Amino acid sequence: MEDYITTYSKIHMSPSAPKAENIRVEDIAHALSLMVRANGHFPEFYSVGQHCIHCCEEAHARGYTDRVQLACLLHDASEAYLADITRPVKQHLPEYREIEQILQETIFEKYLGKLSEEETKLWRKLDDLLLYYEFDHFMGEKLMECPGMPESHPVFGTEPFQVTEKKYLDWFERLQEG
Predict the structure, then answer these.
(1) How many angstroms separate the CA atoms of 110 and 89, rounded?
(2) Helix, strand, or coil here: 47?
(3) In whole angstroms, how large is the CA radius of gyration of the chain?
């Protein structure tokens, strides 16, 4: 078997040796809109794509730069080519984390160039904020100390993947134009 996956747009992509020219936002938006969050343990379908959009919308509500908003939108893009592995398992998979980091950096580099430490800190903070509120909403569980209140108004729930995919691409286009 070859060392690649075939993406939605029919590109042969090697997640362990990514090339920027094989990364397409259409593939990312499509895959993340179909990929379930929380390893499928929420009581209803909620996608990784929805999570990324909510992170982006939160960055927008806080007045963060277009770069940080785009970083929020793309922060789980590597999962479109790998999979979403839960944090408790991922911490025990150093080779996976290395592949994921290289792939995610390649995606960021393609669309944003090099992110600063501050930009990375901001998107990670919003990722945790949304994680907290997603688990509170869907599971009634507080995973960590409350990281603050969201300034956006995320609506957690099932939406058709086509709706999520279109929102993702619309945000991407808007932020690329900005």
Answers:
(1) 28
(2) strand
(3) 15
Q: What is the pLDDT of residue 1?
A: 52
DSSP 88: H
Q: Which residues pair with 12 in a beta bridge?
A: 6
pLDDT digits (tens, 9 = 90+) for 20-55: 999 999 999 999 999 999 999 999 999 999 999 999
Buried b (16+ CB within 10 A) or exposed e, 118-146: ebeebbebbbebbbbbbbeebeeeeeeee
User: How many whole angstroms separate alpha carbon 85 and alpha carbon 91?
Assistant: 10
Residue type, 128: D
**What angle separates helix 66-74 from helix 94-112, to the nearest 10 degrees?**
140
State the average pLDDT over residues 144-148.
Answer: 94
Q: Encoding tokens for residue 88? A: 């408790």
Specify whether the CB–CB gap between 74 and 107 falls below 8 A.
Answer: yes
pTM for this structure? 0.96
Residues of the chain with pLDDT > 90, as a percent, come to 93
Instruction: Name which of 131, 127, 155, 153 is nearest 144 in CA terms.
Output: 131
**For residue 101, pLDDT beyond 70:** yes
Could you tell me the two tokens for 119?
A: 């930009």
81 in Cβ contact with 126 (< 8 Å): no
Look-up: residue for tokens 């580099």? 109
